[in-house]
Amino acid sequence: MLSENKRNFFFGILFIALITEIAFFIAEIPAVKALSLSPLIVGLLLGIIYANTLRKFTPTSWAPGVAFCSKKILRLGIILYGFRLTFGQIIDVGIPALMVDAIIVSVTLVGGYFIGAKCMKMDKETALLTSCGSAICGAAAVLGAEAAIKSKPYKTAVAVSTVVLFGTLAMFLYPILYRNGILHLSPENTGLYIGSTIHEVAHAVGAGNATGDAVIAANAIVVKMIRVMFLVPVLLVLAFFVAGRLKSDDEKGDSANTKRKIAVPWFAFGFLAVVIFNSFGLFGTGLLKGIETVDTFFLSMAMTALGTETSLDKFKQAGPKPFILATILFVWLVFGGYGLAYALGA
C-alpha cells in the first residue's frame, strides 16, 4: 500500500496529465490547429485559467506532484526533444545556415537581455527568459532556461506568452509577405529566413507550409531545428556563467554579493547525446513519431504545471515591459533576419 503522501504525489501528476490530455484534444480542433497553437501553449493557457478560477478547490497536498511535472518531467521532455534533429540535417543545410542561426541567436539573446535588464530596468530573469524564447525555440527554450536558472513559474509564463503572441503574428505575416512578392529571396533563402527568425517550431512549420512551396517548408523546419541545437551551449552558459550572478527584483532583501548555487544542466548533455544517437538512424519513422508524441505530452505537462502556478496578479506584477521587449526583438528578427537572408543570396 502506498502512503498517503505518495498517493497525493501521484494524484498531482495525474491531475496535470488530465489537463494536458484536454489540451491535446483542444489543440486538434480545426480552428485551434489553424493557428498552429501546440498542446504546450494550450496546456499553459488551461493551467493559467485553472490557477485563477478553481485552484482554491484543489488539495494543497497535490503540490509535490505538480512540482514534479514542472521540473523533472520538463527535463525529460527537453532530452527527448533531441529525437527531432540529426547532424545529417545540419550538414545538408550547410555552413551559411549555421552562421545565420548563430548570429540570430547571439544578437537576440545578448541584445535582448541588455535592452531589457539594463535599458528598461526589467527583472533580470524575465528579460533573460523573454530573450531566450525569441532567440532559440520559443516555449522549449524558455522552459530550458527556467530549469537552468531556477526562476519563478510566473516569469516563465510571462515569457512564453510573448512567444505565443509574436510567434503567431510571424506565422501569418511571413506567408503574406512571400505571396505578395515583398520578400525578394529564393525559395531556399525564404526557408532560411522563416526558420531562423520565427519563435516556435510549430510556427515555423505553419509558416513554411502556408507559402505553398515545398522547398521553403523543408528548409524552414531544418533551419529551425538547427536553432534548437543552440539550446545546449546557451543552457551551459546560463548555468555556469549567468545563473549565479542573477539577482531578481523580488530578491532585493538578499546580500548583493550572494550567488546562487549553480545547477548543472545535465539534461542539456542528455539532449545532445540523443541528437548524436538519432543521427545514426537506428529508429524508424514510426517509432520517432511515437517518441515525438510522448515528448510533446511531457513538455505540455510541464507547461500546464507552470500555468497552474501563474495568477493574473503575477502578470500585473510583471507589467508591460516583457511585451515591449518582445516587440523590439520581433522587429529585429523580421528586419535583421531578412537582411541576413538577403545578403546570403546576394
Descriptive key words:
346 residues; mainly alpha; 17 helices; 75% helix; globular
What does this 3D model show about the protein?
With 346 residues, this protein is mostly helical. 75% of the residues lie in helices and 0% in strands. It has one domain. The chain contains 17 helices and no strands. The protein is globular and about 65 Å long. The relative contact order is 0.18.
Summarize the topology.
Layout: H1 4-27, H2 30-33, H3 39-51, H4 63-80, H5 87-93, H6 95-119, H7 124-135, H8 139-149, H9 153-179, H10 187-197, H11 201-210, H12 214-229, H13 231-242, H14 266-278, H15 285-307, H16 312-318, H17 321-345
Contiguous uncertain segments of 5+ residues: 253-260
The global form is globular
- Write down the Rg: 20 Å
Q: Roughly how much helix do the residues carry, as a percent range?
A: over 70%
Main sheet attributes: strand count, strand direction, barrel closure: none
CA(first)-CA(last) distance = 69 Å
Give the SSE order as H and E letters: HHHHHHHHHHHHHHHHH
Task: Give the count of structural domains.
Answer: 1
Mean pLDDT across every amino acid position: 85
Strand content: under 5%
What is the number of helices? Answer: 17
Count of distinct strands? 0
Helix/strand structural class: mainly alpha
Give a brief outline of the structure.
It is found in: Cell membrane. The chain contains 17 helices and no strands. It is mainly alpha-helical.
